[in-house]
Specification:
The protein contains 16 helices and twelve strands. The chain has 388 residues and is of the alpha+beta class. α5 packs across α10, α10 packs antiparallel against α11 and α12 crosses α16.
Length: 388
């Protein structure tokens, strides 16, 4: 175990709102061992930005890590040549050109269909009725699992997210995660039995064409679902909430003085949907007075780095005019999120402008709860509106 200073947390309070603890850690113990998580946390932007790239020390290869055990060894749990080989294999399905020429149009069709079905409702929990299906439909297209409905896509994604954050070892959470991964395997089997057309650029199709093994292909699809459903869903709902709470900034978007991309990038900084990346220490390493030992578990706290006052002025504020270029919302270095372009297109180019076109008079109808420290987002978005 590292010799980092010990910092104790209340797990329930940390899940409900990690930011007070993270602020104290940045100030008092920026590299600290948290017994309740059995991990050493890096919380400052400079430390994370520098060390995330040192994969020879802070390795993504985690044979005993929760993600590997529960979902298989996907490309996120590989470094170096192995990681890059699989990243190249999936690139045709995630490239900027593919997103621009294929997925963008599909995203727009789906978002408008979801919005049109809600206009006359007048009141709804838009977390479930807008953000969830818009995100899930996009993921159906990208993964190629068009035979999995939106509700099941959301269920299996949440089950895997909960499993990967199950550091307390809850047996029920683990069993549910296994049930979710089994569902994905079943849907993959059914989809493969239908055949793959020559013009199919889905994640399933591109991996099969690239010659990835069945095990690799399945693990990477599970990865894409775990990261490609919950995070866009939470970002869509959370960003809508943020704009409704800051009407002056919403007016800037509607008038064209600010862009929807600025809004999304600032929300992803302010409340990072992916707030942590786990690593395994591969060799003895000394840094900032701390000695890391092999097999230590380290958490790179992106959500903390994105609120570091040394990098962002008034970091706890939502401000769409700020420079977010140093944000670590999508990570950095060789493990920079492969789906970042698709995520920006779905949320900034489609989901947000479509929502405010169809619901210009939407109002928050009740308190919006948030939760999570490894993955964070709203748990509901109750709204009301009067026509279009």
């Amino acid at each position: 175990m590292s010799n980092a200073p010990i910092y104790e947390i209340d797990p329930e309070k940390f899940w409900a709102d990690p930011y007070p603890d993270l602020a104290r850690m940045r100030d008092q113990a920026p590299i600290a061992y948290v017994p309740q998580l059995d991990a050493t946390l890096l919380t400052r932007h400079a430390d994370i930005a520098l060390n995330e790239k040192k994969t020879d020390v802070f390795s993504s290869v985690q044979p005993q890590g929760l993600m590997t055990v529960l979902m298989g060894e996907n490309l996120m749990r590989k470094d170096g040549r192995e990681h890059m080989a699989e990243r190249r294999a999936i690139y045709p399905s995630m490239s900027p050109q593919t997103v621009r020429e294929i997925w963008d149009a599909q995203f727009r069709i789906d978002a408008e269909e979801v919005a049109q079905g809600l206009v006359n409702e007048g009141r709804s929990d838009l977390f479930w009725t807008y953000a969830m299906p818009v995100s899930a439909r996009a993921l159906q297209a990208i993964t190629g699992l068009t035979n999995m409905d939106a509700a099941e896509m959301n269920r299996v994604s949440q089950g895997m997210i909960d499993g990967c954050a199950n550091y307390s070892g809850d047996a029920k959470v683990e069993a549910h995660c296994h049930d979710c991964t089994a569902s994905i395997d079943s849907h993959i089997d059914a989809r493969l039995s239908m055949g793959i057309s020559d013009d199919d650029v889905s994640l399933l199709a591109t991996q099969v064409r690239a010659g990835l093994s069945d095990e690799q292909m399945r693990a990477n699809i599970k990865l894409s679902i775990s990261g490609g459903q919950n995070e866009p869903r939470d970002a869509i709902a959370g960003t809508i909430w943020a704009l409704l709470r800051h009407p002056e900034q919403l007016k800037m978007c509607l008038s064209g003085t600010a862009t929807w991309l600025q809004v999304f990038e600032e929300y992803a900084r302010w409340i990072s949907p992916i707030a942590m990346s786990p690593r395994r220490v591969a060799q003895v390493y000394e840094y900032a007075g701390v000695t890391f030992e092999p097999e230590d578990k380290v958490f790179l706290m992106f959500g903390s780095a994105n609120r570091d006052a040394d990098v962002f002025d008034h970091a706890d504020r939502f401000d769409i005019t700020r420079d977010t270029s140093k944000s670590l919302s999508f990570g950095a270095g060789p493990h920079y999120c492969a789906g970042a372009w698709a995520s920006r297109t779905l949320i900034a180019d489609v989901a947000l402008p479509t929502f405010f076109e169809y619901f210009p008079r939407a109002e928050i109808d009740a308190e919006v709860p948030f939760g999570g420290w490894a993955f964070r987002g709203p748990l509901a978005l109750p709204c009301r509106w009067d026509g279009r």
